[in-house]
């Protein structure tokens, strides 16, 4: 025999000598052990088999023909256990003492499935139902030697309440194991936070989204009624306000529609929406992502315009001549990133707010598609702002030395104050949002693992769809989303829409509305 005989197999042989009477074959049983002739399985850790096998084949020729369809998996070695597992299915172990079939261990099946199922799915094949790992025993079986911790790691399963139909490409990453055709449950009793906390969060979002929407709309309308008043370098504030109008509308739609967007009915399961399977969810996430990155891009244009004005002494006309390039950057970069979002299909539902966005179940997607672009925009923008304000300070000193008019100095000081105030009101909330995003990236996996473990250990675990033979992961430490941090995250995403109104709040704005009202009355009387 091969020297790679695994420990469970040896234990089976030893224990069989002690319990032979318990496993005597029926008097009517005529099958006997026979040598393995299947060429690909001749080098496994045993050399005797019995037919019919576990798949119903009555000859080794039939078993060889059925096993040949899995040759590509064994050639690419998608799992180190796939060959042994397939051999134990098609030419199962038979011991002369027991004269009966010994099944493959469940962890052997799980190891083969974890390594090869994703490759099968890419070519349109699903893991066969007759090879479902929950069918196989955990003891008195053939399997590789492994530690207790490794066995517990392989014991993760996707309960029926979280399973999705084939070809949805849903997946849930738990303890570095990718559960295919699986997503987090949206049932009221199975959410990651309780209903009271979720209702509190959504009420909080609704309040701030409403205020942000009103403020952003006010800013946009103020710009539109008096465009000549708002030339470059402050024109980008208009487009930032447009973006935050879109963000606030998305949040208002999400909190007012329950889980209609963030969750989807997949077969018999109500689970968190993933990828591009729900067109409404996809459109919501696309608009949200485009507006989020659009606001960041126009923030950079704003900072660059201020830099050109303060540092390089460019006039309004000179900066306006670059407007076509500003628009290409302000809308082009977010559009390219949105295209990347569609290609990677990194869309999922946010069970806290009810919207669809990016990276709610995947820390990797959240970091690369949200945190990284936002952080870069803040760093570059702050650098340009500091350089511009530094130049303004020099100009202010020059004015005072030359004993310029107090009116000129006051105008410059007011401009510096407003620029600095708006920069702080954008950079601080966005920076805090990036910090919270980083916290989310580092914590989301532990949140999901703790949630899964709690549900698996709950007294109604069977009603959730966990199999009765399933061994739950060990409870290591509790990890919950902090409701205060979540509330701060949503506030930071909406606060800039409110602060955009700061720039237009002035006596000139009141005068603009008075002129518009006068024109309206004149047209009405006419």
Structure characterization notes:
The chain is mainly alpha-helical and 526 residues long. It contains 16 helices and 10 strands. The chain has helices spanning 7-18, 60-67, 71-76, 82-90, 106-122, 148-154, 195-225, 236-256, 279-310, 316-320, 323-344, 363-401, 406-457, 461-464, 483-499, 507-525; strands at 34-35, 48-49, 93-94, 101-102, 171-174, 177-180, 263-266, 269-272, 347-349, 356-358. Strand 9 and strand 10 (356-358) form a beta hairpin. Residues 201-512 form the G-protein coupled receptors family 2 profile domain.
Question: TL;DR?
Answer:
Belongs to the G-protein coupled receptor Fz/Smo family. With 526 residues, the protein is mainly alpha-helical.
Main sheet properties: 2 strands, antiparallel
CATH homologous superfamily name of the largest domain?
Rhodopsin 7-helix transmembrane proteins
Could you tell me the CATH topology label of the largest domain.
Rhopdopsin 7-helix transmembrane proteins
**CATH C-level label of the largest domain:** Mainly Alpha
Instruction: Give the CA-CA distance, first to last residue.
Output: 105 Å
- Mean pLDDT over all positions: 81
Strand order, biggest sheet? Answer: 1-2
What amount of the residues lies in strands?
5-15%
- What is the count of helical runs? 16
**What is the total tally of β strands?**
10
What share of residues is helical? Answer: 55-70%
Shape: elongated
Number of domains: 2
What is the CA-based Rg, rounded?
32 Å
Indicate the low-confidence ranges by residue numbers: 1-29, 147-154
Instruction: Give the SSE string.
Output: HEEHHHEEHHEEHHEEHHHEEHHHHH
Structural class: mainly alpha
CATH architecture classification name of the largest domain: Up-down Bundle
């Amino acid at each position: 025999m091969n020297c790679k005989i695994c420990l469970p197999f040896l234990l089976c042989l030893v224990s069989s000598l002690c319990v032979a009477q318990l496993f005597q074959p029926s008097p009517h049983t005529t099958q006997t052990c026979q040598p393995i002739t299947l060429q690909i399985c001749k080098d496994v850790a045993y050399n005797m088999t019995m037919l019919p096998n576990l798949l119903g084949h009555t000859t080794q020729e039939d078993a060889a023909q059925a096993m040949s369809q899995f040759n590509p998996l064994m050639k690419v070695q998608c799992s180190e256990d796939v060959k042994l597992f397939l051999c134990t299915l098609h030419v199962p172990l038979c011991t002369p003492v027991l004269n009966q079939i010994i099944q493959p261990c469940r962890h052997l099946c799980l190891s083969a499935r974890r390594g090869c199922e994703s490759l099968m799915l890419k070519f349109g094949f699903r893991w066969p139902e007759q090879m479902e790992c929950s069918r196989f025993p955990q003891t008195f079986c053939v399997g590789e030697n492994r530690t207790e911790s490794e066995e517990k790691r392989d014991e993760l399963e996707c309960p029926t309440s979280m399973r999705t139909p084939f070809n949805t490409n849903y997946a849930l990453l738990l303890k570095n194991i990718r559960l295919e055709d699986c997503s987090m449950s949206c049932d009221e009793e199975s959410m990651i936070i309780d209903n009271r906390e979720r209702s509190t969060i959504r009420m909080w979002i609704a309040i701030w989204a409403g205020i942000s929407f009103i403020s952003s709309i006010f800013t946009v309308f103020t710009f539109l009624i008096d465009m000549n008043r708002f030339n470059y370098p402050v024109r980008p504030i208009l487009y930032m306000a447009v973006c935050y109008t879109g963000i606030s509308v998305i949040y208002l739609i999400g909190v007012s529609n329950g889980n209609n967007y963030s969750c989807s009915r997949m077969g018999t399961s109500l689970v968190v929406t993933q990828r591009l399977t729900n067109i409404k969810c996809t459109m919501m996430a696309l608009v949200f992502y485009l507006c989020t990155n659009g606001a960041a891009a126009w923030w950079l244009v704003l900072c660059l315009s201020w830099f050109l004005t303060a540092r390089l002494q460019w006039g309004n006309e000179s900066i306006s001549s670059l407007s076509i390039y500003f628009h290409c950057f302000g809308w082009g970069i977010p559009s390219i990133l949105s295209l990347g979002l569609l290609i990677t299909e990194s869309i999922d539902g946010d069970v806290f707010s009810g919207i669809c966005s990016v990276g709610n179940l995947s820390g990797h997607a959240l970091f690369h598609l949200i945190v990284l672009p936002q952080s870069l925009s803040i760093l570059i923008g702050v650098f340009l702002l500091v350089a511009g304000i530094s130049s303004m300070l020099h100009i202010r000193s020059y004015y005072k030395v030359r004993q310029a008019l107090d009116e000129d100095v006051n105008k410059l000081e007011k401009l510096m104050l407003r620029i600095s105030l708006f920069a702080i009101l954008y950079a601080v909330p966005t920076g805090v949002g990036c910090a919270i995003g980083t916290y989310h990236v580092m914590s989301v996996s532990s949140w999901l693992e703790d949630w899964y473990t709690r549900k698996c250990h709950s007294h109604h675990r069977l009603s959730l769809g966990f199999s009765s033979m399933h061994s739950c992961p060990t409870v290591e430490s509790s990890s919950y989303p902090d409701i205060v941090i979540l509330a701060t995250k949503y506030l930071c995403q909406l606060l800039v829409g409110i602060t955009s109104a700061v720039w237009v709040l002035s006596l000139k704005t009141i005068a603009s509305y008075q002129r518009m009202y006068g024109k309206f009355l004149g047209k009405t009387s006419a």
